[in-house]
């Protein structure tokens, strides 16, 4: 089912049960570390939300899960969407709220891209689900199995997991996290409440980055912050990684420093490259772009990708724009398979040369 929950959620059983042990694998979780350890901690973990209130984006999803948790009606969950959008942070915050100090004993966290075979389902997951859970006075809580990158599991493992979910529903909840929901078999999808985590909007990323910048006492220019948001493409993890790596290379975080650290072409470079492509001859364009690419250490695939985005800012007939974008997509596709940069740069210049000739002919 989707975010709107058509079926009634599964009730939590209330039998008294005993503690269990678990094997913790997957993404590391940083909780209360000593100050000396926190300095060496990657910022994506240091500033990972610890509670549901700390999760800034997707409040509709977070509030729904929070309400189900408060009512002891937490269903099996399937959280899907692009990386760095808060899927893992949300479910870990739910686990901390549910279990508190008993967190380590009540959750089995596996990275399904590493543990993807049927043996893991039959051994680790089934062993964990079959053991008894904690009893907190008169209240008994279900255990939680967290499967990160569940779309990497084999089909056989997914079918085996379906049977385990059915067998241990009274004592265990399963939370599946993935990027591509179409790789999860329908039998598993139908047993979970599905929530889609869309890429974060610029406002949420900006607010979180400003908090980190203030906490770390960083010197970041306004244009540098805008560059971080632009390069993140809605991925909070990517934004924090870029911020930390640039800080390690430079104390003054400007737009240029951030682009140099990531190796991405700057907007002004793309604008200049597009000017050459649209106005200079084949030979001149090829030579000038080659020089810029060599001098600044740019990857041709990044240039093609940014040029494609820049095309939307250029006034031209829609059919010409569509053809140009399709031709650039073909070049990017060939580059992904390791085709010669020199040949594909020639193809890039040729594509714009042909487009320019067609536009001139249409104007006459």
Protein model, in words:
- This protein has 364 residues and is an alpha/beta fold.
- It folds into three domains: 35-196, P-loop containing nucleotide triphosphate hydrolases (Rossmann fold, 3-Layer(aba) Sandwich); 202-262, Helicase, Ruva Protein, domain 3; 267-363, Up-down Bundle (Zinc Finger, Delta Prime, domain 3).
- It has 17 helices and nine strands.
- A five-stranded parallel sheet has the order 2-5-6-1-7, with helices on both faces. Strands 3-4 form a two-stranded antiparallel sheet. It has a two-stranded parallel sheet with strand order 8-9.
- Helix 7 links the parallel strand 5 and strand 6.
- It is elongated and about 75 Å long.
- The N and C termini lie far apart (57 Å).
- The model is unreliable at 4-33 (pLDDT under 50).
């Amino acid at each position: 089912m989707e975010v709107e929950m058509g079926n009634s959620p599964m009730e939590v059983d209330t039998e008294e049960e005993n503690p269990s042990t678990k094997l913790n694998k997957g993404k590391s979780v940083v909780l209360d570390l000593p100050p000396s350890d926190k300095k060496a901690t990657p910022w994506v973990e240091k500033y990972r939300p610890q509670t549901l209130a700390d999760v800034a984006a997707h409040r509709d999803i977070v509030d729904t899960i929070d309400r189900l948790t408060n009512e002891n009606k937490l269903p099996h969950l399937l959280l899907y969407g692009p990386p760095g959008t808060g899927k893992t942070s949300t479910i870990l915050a739910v686990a901390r709220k549910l279990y508190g100090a008993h967190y380590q004993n009540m959750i089995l966290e596996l990275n399904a891209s590493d543990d993807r075979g049927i043996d893991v389902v039959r051994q680790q997951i089934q062993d964990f689900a079959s053991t008894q859970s904690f009893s907190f006075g008169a209240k008994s809580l279900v255990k939680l199995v967290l499967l990160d990158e569940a779309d990497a599991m084999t089909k056989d493992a997914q079918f085996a997991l379906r049977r385990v979910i059915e067998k241990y529903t009274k004592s265990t909840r399963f939370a599946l996290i993935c990027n591509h929901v179409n790789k999860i078999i329908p039998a598993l999808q139908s047993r979970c409440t599905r929530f889609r985590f869309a890429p974060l909007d610029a406002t949420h990323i900006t607010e979180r980055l400003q908090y980190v910048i203030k906490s770390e006492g960083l010197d970041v220019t306004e244009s540098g912050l805008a560059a971080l948001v632009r390069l993140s493409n809605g991925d909070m993890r990517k934004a924090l990684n870029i911020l930390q790596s640039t800080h390690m290379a430079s104390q003054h975080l400007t737009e240029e420093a951030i682009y140099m650290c990531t190796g991405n072409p700057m907007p002004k470079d793309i604008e200049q490259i597009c000017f050459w492509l649209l106005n200079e001859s084949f030979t001149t364009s090829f030579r000038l772009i080659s020089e810029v690419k060599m001098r600044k250490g740019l990857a041709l695939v990044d240039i093609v990708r940014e040029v494609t985005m820049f095309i939307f800012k250029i006034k031209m007939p829609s059919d010409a724009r569509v053809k140009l974008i399709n031709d650039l997509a073909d070049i990017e596709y060939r580059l992904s398979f390791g085709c010669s940069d020199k040949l594909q740069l020639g193809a890039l210049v040729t594509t714009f040369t042909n487009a320019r000739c067609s536009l001139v002919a249409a104007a006459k």
